[in-house]
Amino acid sequence: MRKLVIITGILLLATVTTFAQKFAYVDTEYILENIPSYKAAQEQLDQLSGQYQKELESMHAELEQMYKDFQSESVLLSDEMKRKREDVIVTKEKEYKELQRKYFGREGDLFKKRKGLVKPIQDDIFNAIQEISTEGSYAVIFDKANGLTLIYTNPKFDLSDQVLTKLGYKN
Fold first, then answer.
1. What keywords appear on the UniProt entry (predicted)?
2. What is the rounded distance in angstroms from the CA atom of residue 63 to the CA atom of residue 92?
């Protein structure tokens, strides 16, 4: 009987504690859209990406032309000349793929640039959310941008503007 009272007390305490917790949400997409340095970083990244893409497209067009020339001239070439031309094309294809990896790969130039420009902004946002969470005694703060499905959200629990204010930006 005593165990039943203790277990009931623990369950009741756990239930009260669960209901006493505060929850809120932020929209990091909205927050980022309202930070001018993020917009500038995105524009810089888009410009760099476009530049890389143009270079790769130019190289790809050159490769295609080399291949078309080879196909049209292969009838006239000796076996040795064919092999040499094929080797040149294969080497050029390898250079193209390597350049593609260098620019757009997992550890490529664009990834590193994005990390350098955007990560400090994201860290500031995270720190501001953490401070607001501590100050407001929130148990959980959800991010409704990209992936978390919130069917209904009451705007009074949206802390996005508070995060912007904490970062020194006004909407």
1. Coiled coil, Signal
2. 7
